[in-house]
Amino acid sequence: MVRLPDFRYYTKWHYHVNRKQYQAPAEPWTQIYVDPTDPERLAVVPLPWGLGRVRGGDWDSSENCRSLTDNRMYEGLRQHFEEGREWEETAYHDWVAESIENEGHFRGDENLETVVEERYPAVDDLYERIREQGYRPNHGTIYDSPEGIDGIHELDPMVLVGSSGELIWTEGFHRLYVARFLGINEIPVYVLRRHAKWQRIRDRTAAVPDGEVPVTLGEYRNHPDLADVVG
């Protein structure tokens, strides 16, 4: 379980350290806007370390990431929302049932009936709300500032930014998939972690006057995680 005080503390700590080590540290609670169809991979990393951590290594390698669409959550949601299958006839339901049988729970729920009666309707409500009202982020709807949240689950989705600038999804999968199915153009997300190599690209971009992008980094001109340094 992720303790909110720890999450806030480490988020603040990363920003303190990043300002000392880098020329263009990102404010951790500032969201970037991402096209839901852009990310192709996912990686699960620990949440307790908070937002904005800069870390090197191979955590963004092919060995440590998986396809965003090659899993039973995506397939089950697609079957339900695009093919019109009942929840109990989807790969999602099979995944839930197996998790409860083998692990004793599914995301904290210990029996299948609870998932069917509570979680499935909640996902249906999410889909209908976005379809009818458009995508409304939690920030500005549920909370106005980080101090206003009661738990990590209330935060908007999170991504990682790999060494080459690749956006890798890590939290908020239901919202991502529903946004894809409904053709939403962009959604706001937090950056949980940046690769140290990517942070150096942010620094090099910020070092160029007048908000220009260096010629050698032209491919990143429209990258969502450079909007704050390009202007």
Structure description:
The protein is an alpha/beta fold and 231 residues long. The protein has one domain (4-230). Helix content is 38%, strand content 12%. The chain is built from seven helices and seven strands, in the order αββββαααββαβαα. Strands 1, 2, 3, 4, 5, 6 and 7 form a seven-stranded mixed β-sheet that branches. Helix 2 crosses helix 5 (173-181). The longest helix is centred in the middle third of the chain and has 22 residues, at 112-133.
Using brief descriptors, characterize the structure shown.
single chain, 231 residues, alpha/beta, 7-stranded mixed sheet, 7 helices, 38% helix, globular
Summarize, please:
The protein has 231 residues and is α/β, with parallel strands linked by helices.
